[in-house]
Amino acid sequence: MAIDFYAFDTPNGRKISVALEEMALPYTVKVVDITKDEQFDPAFLAISPNNKIPAIVDPDGPDGQPISVFESGAILIYLAEKTGRFLPRDLRARVPVLEWLMFQVGGFGPMPGQVHHFIGLDSEADRRYGLARFQKETHRLYGVMDRRLADRDFFAGDISIADFAIVGWAWRHGRHGVDLAQYPNVRRWYDTMMARPAVARGFAVPLK
After folding, report:
1. What is the DSSP letter of 142?
2. 8 Å CB contact between 45 and 51
3. Has residue 204 got a pLDDT over 90?
4. Has this prediction a pTM greater than 0.85?
5. Strand order in the sheet with 27-31
6. CB atoms < 10 A from the CB of 205, how many?
């Protein structure tokens, strides 16, 4: 049975479309147009009480019963648990996946997201402080990632849901004001990810 995937064309939406494609799960896109405030619709709020995309409804959830999941990190963990893929069972191997997943949801998402906000303001005075603050932190995060990838192909060793989470935001590096040439290890990883057929399909899925 197909999973209902509620999303819009944002980095957080793309994280899940990539994961669904990599895991070869059937799904149906339900576009939630956040430019028209559709995320505040009561029917969507029943699924995602924080009125944020993405969210999913899996009709074949635990014990064969439907389940809804909101928050992209929780969705990635749920899908990995459901399929037994991209999240190791062994605790020692699982920890770095969870560390880098939380790195993304707590840092490499909120900080570039602030760059997205301030760069779009018309007032130069309003833009200046916010951009200086959040672009500095965004570059710091790219530096953290570059050091992590200096001696490994993916963030947690083997490819995992952490990579799916991070690539959704790295996809917007141009909008972050970041030239990946400054971070060669991130650039190598990013090119490797984007060359994967399932990742390419995940980014090609119409989400608006």
Report:
1. H
2. yes
3. yes
4. yes
5. 27-31, 3-7, 55-58, 67-70
6. 18
